[in-house]
Design goal:
heterodimer, A: three-stranded mixed β-sheet, 7 helices, 6 strands, elongated, B: alpha+beta, three-stranded mixed β-sheet, 4 helices
């Protein structure tokens, strides 16, 4: 069974709540991520999705160098345990508009799982499953061919 | 399977629009990018969330013209590219959607979800086929063993 631990991304992009949105925008771009985790490995204060940065600066026309991350971050965020099954992730993503979950274990962050990670995992899993089934089919094919030969006149002469 | 088979219509913005307008369109759509077109509807480039973040990190204004932040010429996938190759590009660029471009013309966009769904439905069909063949083999072998047992061959 695939669990969250097998799929999550362990490189967590942290940002301090005292940083400004200009720095946050640069970090989001540099780390090619869509979300920053506000706080540190032992204490997560919130999350800052890229949409929030763009909305605050480009739509609400706020000055990115004067707005602190702590002011606009989302204090409420979706979390999941690293031992949860993959089906649980799929279900949670249906109700998660940003398509990202923080993987937390006993209040400590272990990783992030995104919709992209989930899609990549589904893809890899189904492909591996397909290859395994092909191998089983091949073995059964060989056994069947052997039986057919065994009961054929040529097989009767040989065995 | 070619990427061109899974192309869908893209979201557009005029080249004279502001970055604020492009951001509004981008944030209100589920796409990861907006195609910048001229008055003749010819594509001039694309603007992604990362282009906008780059603009914000340089303290750019939201009233600046969209062409100042767009990626041009249109970066994207050729419609004849195999979907596996497209997925690799999307994985490395962390994109959920990607423009399909031919001769610097945007044909539309392709989404990772559509590719994965196509892939999965294809694999599900083959898996059902494999299951059927497997059951056939097993039944055939059980039949042979039973037959040989009756005849005292084995």
């Amino acid at each position: 069974m695939i669990t969250v631990k097998n799929v999550m991304n362990v490189e967590i992009p942290f940002i301090s709540p005292n940083e400004n949105l200009q720095k946050a925008a640069a970090m989001l771009k540099e780390k090619k991520t869509r979300i920053l985790v506000v706080g540190g490995p032992n204490k997560v204060l919130g999350v800052l999705p890229e949409e929030t940065v763009l909305r605050e600066v480009l739509l609400n026309k706020k000055n990115p160098s004067s707005i602190k991350v702590a002011v606009v971050m989302h204090g409420a965020f979706h979390t999941i345990s690293p031992c949860e099954s993959f089906e649980e992730v799929e279900m949670l993503f249906k109700g998660n508009p940003h398509g990202r979950l923080l993987v937390m274990d006993n209040g400590k962050i272990e990783g992030i799982i995104t919709e992209l990670d989930m899609m990549a995992a589904i893809r890899d899993f189904t492909r591996k499953d397909y290859i395994v089934q092909d191998a089983i089919l091949f073995i059964f094919g060989i056994i069947t061919a052997f039986f057919i030969f065994y009961f054929s006149p040529a097989g009767y002469l040989l065995f | 399977m070619k990427t061109g088979k899974l192309v869908k219509k893209e979201v557009q913005v005029l080249e004279s629009a502001s970055i604020g307008e492009a951001a509004r369109i981008l944030l209100s759509s589920s796409d990861d990018m907006v195609v910048v077109v001229n008055k003749q509807n010819a594509p001039q480039g694309v603007i992604t969330a990362h282009d906008l973040l780059s603009h914000v990190s340089k303290k750019g204004s939201s009233s600046a013209i969209v062409t100042s932040a767009m990626s041009a010429p249109c970066i994207g996938i050729h419609p004849d590219t195999d979907i596996d190759e497209t997925l690799k590009v999307m994985d490395s660029e962390r994109l959920r959607k990607c423009p399909v471009v031919n001769d610097n013309k945007v044909l539309g966009i392709v989404s990772m979800k559509d590719i994965v769904d196509y892939d999965n439905s294809n694999i599900r069909f083959h898996r059902s086929l494999q299951n059927g063949i497997l059951v056939g083999f097993v039944l055939f072998e059980i039949g042979l063993l039973w037959f040989s047992h009756l005849r005292g061959v084995l």
